[in-house]
Amino acid sequence: MPPGERIADLDAVPDDSSLLITVADRESGEEREAILVRAGDGVAAWFNYCQHWRDVNLDTGDGAVLRDGELVCKRHGATFERDSGECTFGPCEGAVLDELPVELADGGVFLDADGYEFVRVGASEDDADDDIHKSTESRIGF
Asked: Cα angle vertex 14, ends 26, 71, to 5°?
């Protein structure tokens, strides 16, 4: 039996980007965004912010950028391994994205975190996220 709430079908998680989801803290009710990304034969889930500037989302609603198989912060170019979340380049090199535990079962992705409940696929509607930078303005060139 799957461990928790079903978030999405595995097929809904793109190979070349991310799927943006919203979860809520069971204790406070605060909504938080996370991203699902393909990682090898599985899926990893990371809270949707860069470790350098935590007010900068990796996925601004149009999917996270992947370059050479790594997640890229559009704001300043830090790169993160999608399976481990480790920053391999940039000002936060060596830092690790904060994980949201998920598991695969029965062709789906399931939340495996007792402290959170699944809210929706897509961005948070919580006012607390209004200060998160969702601009695609970049300080780097690709």
From this structure: 80
Residues 100 and 37: beta-carbon distance below 8 Å? no
CA-CA-CA-CA torsion sign (87, 44, 128, 72): positive
Token pair belonging to 75: 């704001």
Domain residues for 13? 6-123
**Residue 133: CB atoms within 10 Å:** 16
The rounded mean pLDDT for the chain is 88
Residue 80, in any domain of the structure: yes
Please indicate, yes or no, if residue 105 is contained in any of the structural domains. yes
Put simply, whether the predicted model's pTM sits higher than 0.90 gets the answer no
